[in-house]
Amino acid sequence: MGYDIERFVGYVNEGLLCSICRDVLEDPLQAPCEHAFCTACIHGWLVHHSNCPEDRQMIDVSLLRPLYRYMKNDLNRLQLHCKNREYGCGMVCSLESIDRHERECEYSQIPCSNAGCTVQIERRNLDGHLAVCEYRSRECPNGCGYTILSAEDTQHNCVAELRTELELLRSEMICRVEEAKHEMESRLDSQRRHMVQKESILQNEIEELKSQMSRMMSDVRSLMAAERQHRQELEQAELEKREL
Fold it and tell me: Which GO MF terms does the UniProt record name (predicted)?
């Protein structure tokens, strides 16, 4: 849908009106036959039709193009009233800047920022409303630190709230202790398995060293026996030499 033509100040050229809604073009697109439409209007039209609503020439979404620059400039220069005119805003500005103004307009109806409040109020009156809103929150004046809504003032009990908070902290602490306990047990089990594995490796190495030492002792005994044999042979040879 386009901009309501009643909002505009002065004459609006016929070529700047949407051929479907007959209001001033909003986010305009132009067909090859040069008829212009609001984007929302022409897209909705083409869901059920395949021709131009003005001259019935065949058109497709892919053939739509942005408005000619000179027409876009003429459109942006049009002057119109703020949509909040009925609430008291007297601003008149160009179509090019109307969106920016309306986003910041003091007369815009905006929702209360307090959770649970459904009031719609003018932006300029928001601070005053927040000061008295029944859904506004504040810290307990008695010093318990609890945040309360004004509507809950009569039901708020510092002792009960602190007891509830204490129970929550106690439950949280128990959970943390249990988690720490499980984590420590898991670590101990992991270390125990590692040490058992290490012990097994060391035991295997000891057995291998014992086997190597046994072989060495056997070799030493063999060498000593060979040495005695060799010495006896030398002594026998020495005796024979003397006899000769």
Answer: ligase activity; zinc ion binding
